[in-house]
Design brief:
The protein is mostly beta strands. The protein contains one helix and 32 strands. 5% of the residues lie in helices and 42% in strands. The strands form nine sheets. Strands 1-2-3-5 form a four-stranded antiparallel β-sheet, with no helix packed on it.
Length: 372
């Protein structure tokens, strides 16, 4: 009997431990890496976690969206873009937490892109000087504030300084359709290297693919490219003048990359991975971001201004719409609106009436795949 109670106690212990086990989080975005930490966005906030993964700590909690975090060269500060005060501007916050401090004040959008190598200024992209179309270019702003200074590059969207700060690798054009897989049109441009003193430019080898998000790591420039018909990480050796492919993802595209010394952090499939440039070892990180997410609670929401994908019945008496992942039937004049799908855990969209007007079909991902 005593032995049975011991085993029962052990079983209960492991059951309780399993109940309290930290659940892995997904949809982790916009990562950057320092010597000891990784910063990323999740649920519209910034989070930090050790480079090996584990339980993340929330760095910001303001209702506005935060994005584009970048560690300072010493890893003590994080520059980021934030939708505070009704506008997207550049802010900095201590990597240990604290109150963010605003650096830019223009009414247009300012997006953080990194730091100068000395850690005294933040690099950001802004279309504040172009009209009538807002084409972004690079600016820097001091940590002490003051007027931002433009870089002598007419147009730039993303980029990274060389270690000595004399050159910059950049992506010139901001794509208006970033999810067009294997696109080979005018949005695509080669990665460029510009000498900031002479303004002479060098283009990386390019075959018309979508090359973007360059980062400078010592003698290599790493970037994303779909030249193998999936978005993967590539590196250009500045000494050998050669390209090499670092990852071979096939299921989901790599979305964002950042680096520190000889280590890359990669966003792919909603997870974060680290890649050791020397050994080539790719490691998926297990990260848990636990917090109070009021937006995830069940709540009422007005959808009157969010109705999309209208489908008019053949009688003209009712119309079907998609709104916030639900399918609604709404009368033309008299009657009540009806929620037809009533499935808040899935995305329902694209309603279509049957010819006799008695049924409505729509797409749904309730099964795990988008289907009728």
């Amino acid at each position: 009997m005593k032995k049975f109670l011991v085993w029962l106690g052990i079983a209960n212990f492991f059951l309780v431990m399993q109940m309290f086990a930290v659940q892995e989080s997904r949809l982790l975005r916009n990562p950057d890496i320092s010597g000891t930490q990784i910063v990323f966005t999740y649920g519209g906030d910034l989070w930090v976690v050790p480079r090996t993964g584990g339980e993340a700590q929330r760095l910001t909690s303001f209702p506005g969206l935060e994005s584009d975090p970048h560690f300072s060269p010493d890893g003590n500060l994080v520059a980021f873009s934030a939708e505070y005060d009704g506008n997207i501007d550049v802010y900095i916050v201590s990597a240990a937490g604290g109150e963010p401090r605003r650096l830019t004040w223009h009414p247009g959008e300012d997006s953080a892109r990194g730091w100068t190598p000395d850690g005294l200024r933040v690099l950001f992209a802004s279309g504040r000087s172009s009209a009538p179309i807002s084409y972004p270019k690079f600016w820097t702003v001091a940590l002490t504030g003051g007027m931002p200074q433009p870089l002598p590059i007419p147009r730039a969207f993303k980029g990274s300084y060389s270690t000595d700060g004399t050159r910059l690798a950049y992506q010139m054009i901001e794509p208006w359709e970033s999810e067009f897989r294997n696109y080979r049109g005018g949005q695509n441009n080669p990665i460029r290297i510009v000498d900031l003193a002479s303004l002479q430019e060098e283009k990386l080898p390019w075959d018309g693919a979508n090359d973007n998000s360059p980062i400078w790591l010592d003698h290599s420039i790493c970037f994303l490219s779909d030249r193998d018909y999936a978005m993967n990480v590539w590196a250009y050796d500045l000494d050998a003048k050669q390209l090499r492919q670092l990852t071979r993802f096939r299921d989901f595209d790599a979305k964002q990359i950042a680096g520190h010394k000889d280590t890359l952090v990669i966003e792919q499939g909603g997870y974060l991975h680290t890649l050791d440039m020397a050994s080539g070892e790719l490691k998926k990180l297990t990260i848990s971001a636990q917090g109070d997410f009021p937006w995830a609670r069940s709540h009422w929401a007005k959808v009157g201004e969010k109705l999309i994908e209208p489908a008019l019945s053949f009688s003209g008496k009712r119309a079907a719409f998609a709104a916030r992942g639900e399918i609604l039937s709404i009368p033309a004049e008299k009657g009540d609106a009806r929620n037809l799908s009533r499935n808040p855990g899935s995305a329902d969209r694209s309603p279509a009436w049957s010819p006799n007007g008695e049924k409505i079909a729509w797409f749904s991902d309730a099964s795990g795949n988008m289907s009728w």
